[in-house]
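Subject: design request, 317 residues
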C-alpha cells in the first residue's frame, strides 16, 4: 500500500465506524420508529383516573416500544383543550361532551382513543356534612363546582334533572381545577362539587363530605367520559405517529382493564394521592377494543338538553 492509499484508508476508517454505529442504532430502534414522522411528543393529562391508561403507557414503556418519546404535563381541563388546539400539546384528554361540541362547531379535533367510562361510585356530587342540601332537588339555584363546563359532570347532572322536569338552568356551574374543588367547597365558595376519583375518596373521608348524587349510576353507568385527542392537522401530517399512539394506548387500556391493582398503583405517579389511599379508589371502566367508543350515547344526551342548535353529529371511526 502506498502512502496515499494508506492515508485514504486512515480517513475512511472513522467514516466506516460511524456508518456501522448508525446502522447498529437503526437496527436497535423499533421498526415502527423508523417510519414515524414525529417521535418526541408533549401531551397533557389531568390528575384524575381518566388518564391511567396514558400514564401506564408511559411508565411501562409502551410508547417507547413504538419509538415514541412522550412527556406529559399535568394541567386543567380548559388548558388541555386550548393547548391541543393551539399546538402546546400534541395530544390531550377532552371530555366527549367538549369534543363533540368542538367537532360540531368545526374545530379541527380528532380522537385517537377513548380512555374510560363511568361506573357507580366513581364520581360524586358532594356537599359538606352540615349542608342543607339533601337531594338532587336541593341543588336548584345553587353553585356547583366542576372540572369544566359543558362536560361530563354538569351535562349528566342536567339530564338527571331534566328527567324530573326540573329547571336545571338555575344551577350555576363553576369551573375549578382539581386542587381547588374541595377547598372552595369547604370555604363556602360553592355549595356542591363534582368529585371524580382519585379526589373523591380522600376528600369524602378527610373533610366530612357526603354524597348527594352518584353521577354514573343507573342509566348513566358506562357513560363515555374522556377521549384522547389531537388536531386533524397533526393526524394528517403524522399518520404513522398517530397510529403508534393508538397502539400504545390500546395496550395501556388493556393493562388498566385487566389489572385494577396496577391502575390504582400508577396514581401516585401523577397525582398527590398516596399509595394506601389509592388502593380504595373506585375505578372507572377502561374499555378494550372499542376505538373511540359509542359516542351516540353522548350525542343523544346532548340532543336531549339542546346543547347545540341542531342534532349532534358524531365523527366516523
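Subject: RE: design request

Done. Sequence follows.
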Amino acid at each position: 500500500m502506498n502512502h496515499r492509499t494508506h492515508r485514504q484508508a486512515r480517513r475512511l476508517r472513522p467514516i466506516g465506524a460511524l456508518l456501522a454505529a448508525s446502522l447498529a442504532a437503526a437496527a436497535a430502534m423499533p421498526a415502527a420508529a423508523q417510519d414515524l414522522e414525529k417521535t418526541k411528543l408533549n401531551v397533557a393529562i389531568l390528575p384524575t383516573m381518566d388518564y391511567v391508561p396514558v400514564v401506564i403507557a408511559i411508565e411501562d414503556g409502551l410508547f417507547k416500544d413504538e419509538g415514541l418519546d412522550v412527556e406529559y404535563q399535568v394541567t386543567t381541563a380548559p388548558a388541555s383543550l386550548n393547548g391541543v388546539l393551539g399546538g402546546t400539546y400534541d395530544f390531550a384528554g377532552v371530555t366527549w361532551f367538549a369534543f363533540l361540541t368542538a367537532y360540531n362547531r368545526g374545530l379541527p379535533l380528532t380522537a385517537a382513543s377513548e380512555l374510560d367510562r363511568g361506573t357507580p361510585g366513581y364520581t360524586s356530587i358532594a356537599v359538606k356534612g352540615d349542608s342543607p342540601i339533601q337531594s338532587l332537588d336541593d341543588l336548584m339555584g345553587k353553585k356547583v363546582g366542576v372540572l369544566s363546563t359543558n362536560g361530563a359532570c354538569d351535562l349528566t347532572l342536567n339530564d338527571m334533572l331534566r328527567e324530573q322536569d326540573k329547571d336545571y338552568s338555575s344551577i350555576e356551574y363553576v369551573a375549578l381545577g382539581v386542587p381547588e374543588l374541595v377547598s372552595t367547597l369547604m370555604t363556602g365558595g360553592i355549595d356542591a362539587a363534582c368529585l371524580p376519583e382519585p379526589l373523591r375518596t380522600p376528600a369524602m373521608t378527610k373533610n366530612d363530605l357526603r354524597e348527594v348524587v352518584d353521577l354514573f349510576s343507573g342509566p348513566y353507568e358506562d357513560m363515555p367520559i374522556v377521549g384522547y385527542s389531537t388536531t386533524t392537522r397533526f393526524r394528517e401530517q403524522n399518520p404513522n405517529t398517530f397510529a403508534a399512539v393508538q397502539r400504545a394506548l390500546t395496550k395501556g387500556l388493556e393493562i388498566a382493564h385487566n389489572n385494577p391493582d396496577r391502575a390504582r398503583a400508577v396514581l401516585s405517579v401523577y397525582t398527590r394521592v398516596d399509595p394506601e389511599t389509592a388502593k380504595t379508589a373506585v375505578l372507572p371502566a377502561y374499555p378494550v377494543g372499542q376505538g373511540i367508543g359509542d359516542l351516540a350515547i353522548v350525542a343523544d344526551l346532548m340532543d336531549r338538553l339542546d346543547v347545540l342548535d341542531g342534532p349532534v353529529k358524531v365523527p366516523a371511526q
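The chain is about 40% helix and 20% strand.
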